Amino acid sequence: MNIDEVRTKTLAFIANQKLENKGIGHYRYSSAPSSSSPSLYSSCYAVMTRSLYNDLGTLSDGERKEWIAYFNRHQDDDGLFRDPVIFGRGWYEGDPFWCGRPHLTCHVLTALACLGGVAEKPFALARDYAGKGALKHWLESRQWRERIGTVGNEIMNLGNILQYARDFHEDRRAGELVEEMLNWLDTHHLNKTTGLWGNADRSDPRQLSNAVQAAYHWWAVYFYDRHPIPCLEQAVDSVLATQNPAGGFGWGVHNPAEPYKSSACEDIDSIDPLCRMAALTDYRRDDIFRAIEKAVPWVLTNQMPDGGFVFYRDRAFEYGHPALTGEINSGAMFPTWFRTLSLAIACQSGARVSGSRYPWHFVHCPGYQFFP
Q1: Which of 173, 174, 277, 356 could serve as a FRET partner for 330 with CA atoms 20 to 30 Å apart?
Q2: What is the Cα–Cα distance from 159 to 366, expressed in whole angstroms?
Q3: What radius of gyration do the chain's Cα atoms show?
Q4: pLDDT tens string 49-69
Q5: Residues near 211 by Cβ (< 8 Å), separated by ≥ 6?
Q6: Rounded CA separation 162/97 (Å)
Q7: How far is residue 148's CA from residue 351's CA, in Å, rounded to a whole number?
């Protein structure tokens, strides 16, 4: 991997999505006709990808402040952020916790941190779940058997927002709720044989992949707070077992027709925890390094001639709304960010991958883009 070439192509793709007739922060999602309008998600992906590559230094102080203000204009009174282009359709119908405003909010908070900004309004969630037994009831009411992947996003979204409220808004109640959440996860729905939550059959690659993808999301809450990972060695075994013969980590959860053409989510959901776990234990560390060394070339095959990355190869993908559509083998903003983040995290693992000496830039903020 020539990281300088990858960087140049990626940043050129990001620049091409900027809508020049709009103010700073206005980015479309892709070249698809349905994605011609700017979206808050796309603005987040532009900020976070550029931050990873240390490209935000090209902004003037005025441009940085304007971009921060652009995000904060989209914050509702309860603290959550709203995308006016997407609201009311797709993910946002009924504002589900796993993919509605809480999901968008976690992205905006990381983007604000990359810019040196802070969300202006406090989060009502810390108050809503502070009542006696409220958080425990919410956790127990999740669809642990039926929709483990959805539960992964729900817990990450709530956990990250509470961590942010604790660290950036000095909300003591939020910090207490994070501790309660992690202590509860340590002992509930945890399969000590697999190190995962739920009852996935490790002999079934698709079930195992789905369970690892779920765990990735709340492991992020664990890693940020440096809370010990329960059943760490068993978790390492499970995540390693998700690697497919092509080098990625898909087994058909997102791409049943061609399961080895893994998605951006399937890949990072195993790459990220493996790299972080390698820093926590000597257990199977050489196996982890070999897995990462095999994964990086696969991730790079998902960069297209336009410089952007795809969610998965040879198929179009709509990220929950027509305005977030990536065409077949054409770059889109979400997978470009997520696959760039996969590369950046892989380069921190200690594995022998080119790009490991590149000065990747991370931010100390709950969510996706902190390291270690």
Answers
A1: 356
A2: 9
A3: 19
A4: 999 999 999 999 999 999 999
A5: 148, 194, 196, 197, 198, 200, 238
A6: 14
A7: 31
In a domain, 207, yes or no: yes
User: Which residues does the chain have with pLDDT short of 50?
Assistant: 89-90, 92
> How many Cα atoms occupy the beta-carbon half-sphere of 244 within 13 Å?
22
Q: Per the confidence metrics, is the pTM higher than 0.85?
A: yes
Burial class (CB in 10 A: 0-12, 13-18, 19+), 227: middle
- Two structure tokens written together for 130: 């502070």
Domain that holds residue 233: 3-346
Helix (H, G, I), strand (E, B) or coil at 317: strand
Count of domains forming the chain: 1
- Please tell me the distance from the alpha carbon of residue 344 to that of residue 218, in angstroms, as a whole number: 20
Asked whether residue 351 is assigned to any structural domain, the reply reads no
CA distances from residue 117 to 67, 69, 114, 172, 351 in whole angstroms, order as listed: 9, 9, 8, 21, 33
Q: 213-239, pLDDT tens digit by residue? A: 999 999 999 999 999 999 999 999 999
Instruction: Give the span between the Cα atoms of 83 and 75, in whole angstroms.
Output: 9
Give the 3-state secondary structure of 210-236.
HHHHHHHHHHHHHHHHCCCCCCHHHHH
Phi, psi of 224 (to 5 degrees): -65, -40
In tens, the pLDDT along 35-47 reads 999 999 999 999 9
**In CATH, what number is assigned to the domain containing residue 103?**
1.50.10.10
Residue 360 falls within a domain, yes or no? no
Task: Please check whether residue 123 is in contact with residue 366, taking contact to mean a CB–CB distance below 8 angstroms.
Answer: no
| 34 within a domain of the structure (yes/no) | yes
User: C-alpha angle 143/130/372, rounded to 5°?
Assistant: 70
Burial class (CB in 10 A: 0-12, 13-18, 19+), 180: middle
Q: Token digits for 330?
A: 């054409």
Q: CA triplet 303, 99, 176: central angle to 5 degrees? A: 115
